[in-house]
Amino acid sequence: MLKFYYHQISINSRRVWIALLEKNIEFEGIELKLNGDQFEPSFLALNPFHHIPVLEDNGFSVIESFAILDYLEAKYPDNPLLPTDARSLGLVKMVQMVTLNELLTAMNPLIMKGMGFGEPEVKKLEESQQKVGKVLEFFAEKLGEQSYFIDDRLTLADIVAGTAIGVLPFLGFSLDSYSNLKAWCDRLMQRSSWQQTQATPEQLESFKAQMKTLMAKKVAE
Predict the structure, then answer these.
(1) Whether residue 114 has pLDDT greater than 90
(2) Which stretches does DSSP call E strand in the chain?
């Protein structure tokens, strides 16, 4: 059976977790606490860069969430999350990479502030909001009035972008100006895979407290 190493709060983990559920793949979930357990020799043997998520398949470990998603598509073709025609595939990959390279990078100051890890400069927060807005405008145009990026079919574009955009309201960034994206997020939240992987407020607060403790300890050292 596949072993999936993850953390409940991790966006990178969640996109793989949702894909596993949507494709109805049987797996064993192994949650790391990220309190130092990611540096244990047993985990470093799977990923020497000590990051999650990791997928282990009969002794073969796959690191990096996008690589894991591609691996799952290739090995488990049922319930596909990638289209095959060139235009649709190009759109899905484009949304994935824009999420990774543009959106998540732009979100970093918002995440830092929202998680209580620090108070970024006002200028950096303003730049962050502007860059996020630019990405959302791009996605809103690509989505149009469709249920999902590729007509009425869920793909990795929705999973990758949705797991990132879905946290924006919790970071103080409203989606009200992007009505079709907001409706799309609501649609995703109605899916069982989203509900099963949604972190509770208690889990979020616990993670914040843990990270603050670890950060304070590092500063003291």
Answers:
(1) no
(2) 2-6, 27-31, 54-57, 60-63
